[in-house]
Specification:
Blueprint (H helix, E strand, L loop, with lengths): L4 E7 L12 E7 L7 E11 L2 H5 L21 E7 L10 E4 L6 E5 L4 E2 L15 H11 L7 E4 L7 H10 L4 E6 L2 H10 L4 E4 L5 H8 L4 E6 L3 H10 E9 L3 H4 L12 H6 L3 E4 L8 H15 L6 E5 L4 H9 L6 E5 L1
Parallel strand pairs: 8-9, 8-11, 9-10, 11-12, 12-13, 14-15
Antiparallel strand pairs: 1-2, 3-4, 3-6, 3-15, 4-5, 5-7
Helix pairs in contact: 2-3, 2-9, 5-6
């Protein structure tokens, strides 16, 4: 690989408002040479996620390091091994790792996860946010047969899978929230949702009461803010409320968004409010891959996602994700 070059995307400056093109720099650099115990991967696909907006700030509350100014960004990616001297990996092996935002990645062997060929019909599926969705449904909201479930941010990469998983777990009624009528219609016709409340179409609580006249038993919350307050207001006694994301804060262009909560109301109705993060539940990933592979093959699960082509499109992919221009996950083919 000597004298070969590849491209990587670096953070040029920290945002002080909206995420714009000038915050990124695409740089051509030499393809690295692996030493013994290292793995060189030719990345084929990378994912963008809302948490990346948070990681662009110098200080964050998430358990992940912020992106460094002048350094390549990072994130989930899949690719093929090019060389891996002194390891049990072989050229051509499909692997997953966390050094996206570059065409080639050099990692220690322990930082690479070999993927079973054929487990998923499309390698892009390894970049789904299904493990987070499964965690929130099973371990956060503890969805049970017969439940009425409310999923906020239902058209995102997590929410579009969470609703499907809730149905697999026997939920009787699944309600989602999203920001447009177009997305609402797709959630209803393609992804198993029974009702959708639309941000901006009236008070969320009023819409939710109409969609769930008998209340909700479980919440999968990606957003916080008004939507979390509405869920608490409509929650039945003994409801399980899982906080899985905080888009109201993550996408608020640097400002901190807080959610007032009536704690006496939680006490009076024995409601559980629980924050869950995949960081603590990574054991679910193999279970998800097996469930996802089977579901994709038998048609009980779908993987909504958009693909942009070329590493030069990665900054736009993140901007469009933040702007809510896509339904499901947003991936970049490298």
């Amino acid at each position: 690989m000597k004298n070969r070059t590849h491209r990587e995307v670096r953070l040029a400056a920290r945002p002080e408002g909206p995420v714009t093109d000038d915050l990124f720099e695409i740089v051509e650099v030499p393809v690295p040479e692996p030493a013994a115990g290292q793995v060189l991967v030719r990345n084929s696909l990378m994912a963008v996620a809302a948490v990346m907006r948070t990681l662009m700030d110098e200080v964050t509350t998430v358990p992940m390091p912020s992106f460094g100014v002048g350094e390549a960004l990072y994130g989930e990616a899949v690719g093929e091994v090019v060389a891996a001297p002194g390891t049990d990996l072989k050229p051509g092996d499909l692997v997953e790792h966390r050094l996206g935002w570059r065409e080639y990645a050099l990692l220690d062997a322990a930082e690479v996860q070999r993927l079973a060929p054929g487990l998923l019909p499309d390698p892009a599926g390894y970049l789904s946010q299904g493990p987070t969705a499964l965690m929130g449904i099973d371990r956060g909201a503890e969805v049970r047969p017969g439940d009425t479930v409310f999923v906020t941010g239902a058209a995102g990469g997590v929410g579009s899978l969470a609703g499907q998983i809730a149905k697999l777990r026997g939920a009787a009624r699944v309600i989602g929230s999203t920001g447009s009528r177009e997305k609402a219609d797709r959630l209803l016709t393609e992804f198993g949702y029974d009702a959708v409340v639309i941000r901006g179409a009236g008070p969320i609580e009023e819409q939710l009461r109409a969609a769930a006249p008998d209340g909700i038993d479980a919440l999968f919350d990606n957003v916080g803010g008004e939507q979390l307050q509405a869920a608490i207001a409509v929650a039945n006694r003994g409801a399980r409320l899982a906080l899985v994301g905080a888009l109201a804060t993550q996408l608020s262009e640097g400002s901190v968004s807080t959610t007032p909560i009536d704690t006496l109301s939680l006490l009076a109705r024995s409601i559980t409010l629980r924050g869950v993060a995949l960081y603590d539940h990574r054991d679910l990933i193999p279970e998800w891959h097996a469930l996802f592979g089977q579901g994709l093959r038998d048609g009980t699960l779908a993987f909504p996602h958009s693909r942009l082509h070329g590493i030069e499109q990665a900054p736009r992919a993140l901007q469009e994700l933040i702007a809510g221009k896509h339904l499901g996950s947003v991936l970049v083919e490298l």
